[in-house]
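Researcher: Here's a chain I'd like modeled. Treat it as a single chain, no partners, no ligands.
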Amino acid sequence: MGYGILGVEGRKLHMISMGVVQLHKYNDHALKLKRIFERSLYLVDEFHPDELAIEAPFYGKNVQSMLKLGRAQGIAMAAALYREVPIHEYSPKKIKQAITGNGNASKEQVAEMLQRLLNIPQMPTQLDATDGLAAAVCHYFQRDGGAGVGKKKSGSYSGWKSFINENPDRKKR
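Model: Modeled as a single isolated chain. C-alpha cells:
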C-alpha cells in the first residue's frame, strides 16, 4: 500500500513524505489488515493531515483480489476516520487524468509527471508510493473547485502544455 503526504503553502505544493507499507512478510490476511491499520494510524498521528485522499475501489476479474483490496482500503479509511480526518475517494482513471491528462496513463507516466510537478530528486523503486502521492495531488487539484497548481483561477488548463506555459518555473530541469 502506497502513501504520499503533501504540504501546501499558498499555491505551492510540495512532497513531505511518500512510501510503501510493506506487507509481503505477512502470510495471514488479517495480519496484513492489522499492519495497514497500525501504519495508517501512525501516519495520521505523525503528520496530522487535514484530509485523506484514497483510490476508490475498482472492478476487476478476480473477485477474491477485489475483496481483499476493498478490505485494505476500508481499513486505511477507518484509521483516518478514527482520528476524524475527512476522506475523499477518486477512481484510478480520475487520478491518472488529473496528474498526466490521460486517464489511461501508465504508473511510470504518473510517476514521471509527479517527479516534474513536485521536483522530486529521486523516485522510489516501488510505484505504489507514487500511486499514493498521485491520489493526494489529484485531491489538491480537485479541492476548492479545482483552483490550485493545476488550474487557473478563471478556468482549467487545456493540458500540460498550457500549464507549463502559464507556469514556466515548473518546466523540466
